[in-house]
Write a structure and sequence with these properties.
With 264 residues, the chain is an alpha/beta fold. Helices cover 39% and strands 24% of the residues. The relative contact order is 0.11.
């Protein structure tokens, strides 16, 4: 972590702490205090505030990213792939939805990271088919609504006609959707038909759509079509994405936000 020159506002300092967690998943109080040029007591107060808001869990000498039993249940080989990029994407996407009162949130490891960084607010409703996300948000000051229906073993996600009927009962300000593939030519795609269908319905019933996917997904096409890219307002990804694919997406009018980069 680079040393900070001059004095930093508390909100910016806490953002730096979250960025450190997003990169490394753990932080050490002494090391962070030296890097930010503040006292260890100040860092401990920041960690306490972030823990209170549901972002962190304190450990001896530092903190780790907030985890729950539900997220541990969802742990599998895919969760290890591009983990740092997914954490940063989730954090940035959570910042971008500030002010929304109702969210549809899809399934998958990137969506789980988004939920971990979503600020706890009493006036926000999150509708999701993901059991890990519902379990995580259910422990915080967020009204979490789980779709119901048949539970898919691999994703721990609700699917089928009951889940689809539940989606039809709601309207959201923003749908935040992960993807197995994101292509300017082929659109948003998924590995499974059931996931694709729920995501499609969430997108249709939202005022805006945000797709969150690490750079490895850009230019890829999975077998189950979700929607054309013209249905997407914002894409949050990372700098590993292919520049040509990013240019093609921007040409469609999509706002592209790159984590770890200046601007969008």
């Amino acid at each position: 972590m680079k040393e900070v020159v001059g004095q930093m506002l508390a909100v910016d300092r806490r953002h730096q702490i979250l960025e450190r967690v997003a990169d490394q998943q753990t932080i050490q109080v002494g090391e962070l205090a030296r890097a930010l040029r503040v006292s260890e007591m100040t860092i401990r107060r920041d960690i306490h505030r972030l823990e209170r808001d549901g972002f962190l869990r304190r450990t001896y000498g530092g903190a780790t990213a907030h985890l729950t039993r539900a997220l541990e249940l969802a742990f599998n080989a895919r969760a290890l792939e591009h983990a740092a990029a997914k954490r940063r994407i989730g954090m940035e996407a959570a910042r971008l939805v500030e002010g929304a009162s109702t969210l549809f949130v899809g399934v998958g490891t990137t969506a789980e990271h988004f939920a971990r960084f979503l600020p706890a607010r009493d006036n926000i409703v999150v509708i999701t088919g993901s059991l890990p996300i519902a379990s995580l948000l259910g422990t915080r000051s967020v009204r979490a609504v789980v779709l119901g229906g048949v539970v898919q073993r691999d994703e721990l996600a609700c699917s089928g006609p009951i889940a689809a009927a539940s989606v039809a009962r709601y309207h959201a300000d923003i749908a935040v959707i992960g993807a197995a593939g994101v292509s300017a030519r082929s659109g948003v795609t998924e590995l499974e038909d059931d996931v694709a269908e729920i995501n499609r319905q969430m997108m249709e019933r939202s005022d805006a759509v945000m797709v969150i996917a690490d750079g490895s997904k850009l230019g890829s096409v999975a077998r189950a079509a979700v929607a054309p890219m013209t249905s997407v307002n914002t894409l949050v990804t990372d700098k590993s994405a292919k520049p040509a694919e990013l240019d093609a997406l921007r040409a469609l009018g999509i706002r592209v936000v790159l984590t770890g980069a200046e601007g969008s």
